[in-house]
Amino acid sequence: MEDLPLTTYENASPEVKKEYDYWIQRSGRITNMKRLMLQDPPTYRVFMAWYDLYERLVGLVSERAANLYCYAISTANHCLLCSTFFRRIFVEAGEDPEAFTLDETEQLLFDLGSAIASDPNGIPAAVSERLELRFSAQELVLIIGFGAQMVATNYFNMISRVAVDDVLEPYMTPEFLAQVAAER
Predict the structure, then answer these.
(1) pTM (2 decimals)?
(2) Contact predicate 89/67, CB 8 Å
(3) What CATH number is attached to the domain comprising 115?
């Protein structure tokens, strides 16, 4: 699907304008993904539940670990938009996304994220065992649910071909683009 129209503030309903205002206040802009999803507010609301799960995951593991999990899922899914979004977070924090140093929990979530996106029916036994030793059943449901939500977000962006936001373009180095392309 190409050229699905993004909503514009000028032509938006009051409900959609409220969401625009919220994101402008929160982060200074509204992303292309959100502008596309706002074509259908119920779809938008379902996908925005990602933020609730994200905050809970951050509280469980750490913001860096949650972002690493998202990055692993997005790069293994070959979602250029989401992987670039998370790559930007690491670069702006002074990290090299090609040479992460991970603690035990971060490595576990990174391995799980890569496995979820590559073969959700084939999560390695070693990863499952490490997860079960580290997290409770409730925590695992959160981790898996959030991972599935990240996959859904990747798929939405890839299927609808949401354009990479202009603020992300500087983070799409030739090496990074080759890595994402090679994983397809």
Answers:
(1) 0.92
(2) yes
(3) 1.20.1290.10
